[in-house]
Amino acid sequence: MKPEERVIVALDLEREEDFKRVLREISPYAKIVKIGPVALLGIGFKTVEMTKEYGLEIFLDLKHMDIPNTVALSAKGIAKIGVKMFTLHCLGGREMIKSAKEELSAFKSPPLIIGVTLLTSWDKETISSFGIPSMELLFETLIQIGIEGGVDGFVCSPVEARRIKTLAPDKVCITPGIRLSSEKDDQKRTGSPEEAIESGADYIVVGRPIIKSPEPAQAFLQIIERVKSCK
Ligand code: C5P
Q: Is 35 a pocket residue for ligand 1 (Cβ < 6 Å)?
């Protein structure tokens, strides 16, 4: 895979003019953008159409978690839109994931199902507030549920990318929580682009370090250079 295909830009922008500007500036270089509730609810479905007009692929990140029937019908809707991949929560359970997978079997080139494991904004305190003794235990359980349900890949923090490649070596690994410096925003388990890629991430997701930059294209290209330098 080319380095520019491995850096997914999270377009978490609420205003159409900002979305258009960043999309326009990165479009000569970027290949995949992540669209989630911030842009979809703030701007609307036209974010998907605009992205397609620029020839970029879409990672639809709505992190589905609901009863199996609802998630299966949502997966069908997503396949009709024609996106590269979409997320659901492994926490939703194996039946939920299986029902989405079955629904997608009717499509010739269905989107990849990406299972969200632990959110990168969670830390040990968050996990213990759920009454779960360890982060590692929850992580491994979610991976197992994802494998049994039939996901094509996982989202995890750069800290866990290596574990994914051990527990599920044939699955795609996508890591958000990428930071270029010690700046963390609300993210807790972060890593640099190099740490994520060298730990086995196939794709890294970068939002604010690119979209809040005064020069998003430059910020994207700097990350590409760092990805290129990885072993
Ligand atoms: O701005 P930033 O680079 O932190 O954006 C990260 C993106 O990845 C956000 O859109 C966030 O919703 C998403 N994400 C995450 N942690 C996960 C799954 C998705 O940060 N586990």
A: no
Residue of 2, 20, 34, 63 marked catalytic: 63
Helices marked H in the chain: 3-6, 16-26, 37-42, 46-53, 68-81, 94-104, 124-129, 135-149, 161-167, 193-198, 208-211, 216-228
CA–CA separation, 8 and 141 (whole Å): 27
* Ligand 1 atom at minimum distance from 12 CA: 10
DSSP string, 117-143: -S-TT--HHHHHHTT-S-HHHHHHHHH
The residue whose C-alpha atom lies closest to atom 13 belonging to ligand 1 is 176
Q: Is the CB of 114 under 6 A from ligand 1?
A: no
Reading the chain (231 residues) residue by residue, the pLDDT tens digits are 999 999 999 999 999 999 999 999 999 999 999 999 999 999 999 999 999 999 999 999 999 999 999 999 999 999 999 999 999 999 999 999 999 999 999 999 999 999 999 888 898 999 999 999 999 999 999 999 999 999 999 999 888 999 999 999 999 999 999 988 767 677 777 889 999 999 999 999 999 999 999 999 999 999 999 999 997
Q: Is the CB of 176 under 6 A from ligand 1?
A: yes
Task: Look up 63 and say whether it is catalytic.
Answer: yes
The rounded distance, in Å, linking the Cα atoms of 202 and 205 is: 10
CA of 106 to the centre of ligand 1 (A): 30
- Give, for ligand 1, the residue of 62, 89, 120, 206 to mutate: max count of ligand atoms closer than 8 Å to Cβ: 120
Residue 7 pairs in a beta bridge with 204
